[in-house]
Amino acid sequence: MTRGISLQDGAVSGSPLPQPCPAPDLRRPWLAVTAVGMATFCVVTTEMLPVGLFVPITAALGVSVGMGGFMLFVPAILAALFAPLVVVGAKGADRRVILCGLLALLAGANAASALAPSMAWFLAARVLVGFCIGGVWAIAGGLAARLVAPGAVGLATSIIFGGVAVASVLGVPLGAFIGGLAGWRAAFGAMAVLCFGVLLLNASSLPRLPAERALRVRQLVSQLANPALRLGLLVTLCLVAGHFMAYTFVRPLLQSHAAFGPAWIGPLLFAYGAAGVAGNFLGGGAAARRPAATLLAIAAGLLVTLLLFSAVGQFPAAAAALLVAWGLAYGGVSVSLQTWMMKAAPRAVEAATSLFVAVFNLGIAAGSLLGVPSVDALGLRANLWLAAACILAAAAMLARAGRQAAP
User: Fold this and answer.
1) Under-50 pLDDT residues of the chain
2) Does the global pTM surpass 0.90?
3) What domains are defined for the chain?
């Protein structure tokens, strides 16, 4: 699929997205966009917080490194289920009310995680996290066009999905830093307080956002007849599964494979996340013009990075440089895939977004689950090769689509 190829419903890659006008009563649109971006920041930080605290959590709760992968698997698989269910179940309800309610529940889930006396308790709290992830992503992903003028939708989408990248820059490293100072429970407690603050920001800055139309299950399923949407969902599954098969275990990878001490983990994850923010805005701008080519470049970057990490990642300098390259490549994944979905189904953005969020989180669940036996039985290095194979599948699908597309 190349620039100029028709995606669906008259949408053309590189053309502006036909979207509804922004709400007329919204006087501070960019504050509202930032508030929604902070909501995505909260859910992604909560979801990914165990990555930066992986070693102390598994040690405190008495489970193996491989079994620790369930800390990501549980919320991800439930988010995959809840994303479409929340949108269908919400019917005509005000999206602002739903978003604020989910942020309140997320604050409670973080508080429960901080108090967890066992892995069973911790995973029970992560069930609530999964519900919130699916709901917030599905609602927030399609709000850009309702908050800003049509010409600013691309930038607003990058800001909303910038919460994903900023979570890597600030959320996960800061969680690791707080965990190093005061323990991993304090990190989840701080996250609960932040979620409540973001709830207040969204409640005060967002306008009323009634549903444009109630979404039914039949209408949701009918979107799967869209070939461009189907391809985007398959690419999403492979890219995300491959990434999380490796990234779930990035802390043990840095400490065991590259021999970094615990004090280095926070700065290294910060560097990864800073590169991810750059990748988010670079990817968002490029995907607005050529989504398929942008995603192919991202897949190639991830593939090369994982293979090189396996080959030379035992050298600390090489591992640090590759981690930054990894962040730069993955930073553009979410916004580029969301742009693909909006271009593939411009008249059904909320339905397409809910399917995208479901498959994205299914990819997280698949990657973190596949990493459990892979790491425990084969080791961290072999797990990188298996993760690279998933990325290669996504790259092959994108390359094949590009060859078949009309110039």
Assistant:
1) 1-25, 405-407
2) no
3) 6-13+22-404 (1.20.1250.20)
